[in-house]
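User:
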Amino acid sequence: MAKVIGVEGMTAADLHLELQKGGRFVIYQYCISVIVMTFKRASNVYFLRAGESGVIRGLPFTLLSMMLGWWGFPWGPIYTLESLAINLQGGRDVTQEILALLAQSTTPQP
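Assistant: Predicted structure:
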C-alpha cells in the first residue's frame, strides 16, 4: 500500500470522524520531461481533512509540472496539461479505493 500522508497520530475513530465531516484521500499528478522522454507520475496518497484545500496541498506538484513538464515532445505538453487539470481540481479523489483496501486488510483471511 502507498504511503498515506496526513494521518499521522490519528486513531481509526479520528479518521472515521474526519471522513464523515468530509475528509478525503487524494493523489496528485506531476510530469517531468527531458527532451524526448516524459515521465508522468502520481504522488503518495494525501489525507485532506474537511475544509482543507486540495489545491494548496498539491501546489508543489503543480509547480514542478509547470517548470519541468513541458519540454518533452510530444507528450510533455499533453501530460503537463493533464497534471495541471487534476491538481487544480484539488487532486484525484481516491477515498473509496483506500477504504476498500483498509477493509480488505482488516478482514480475517481463511
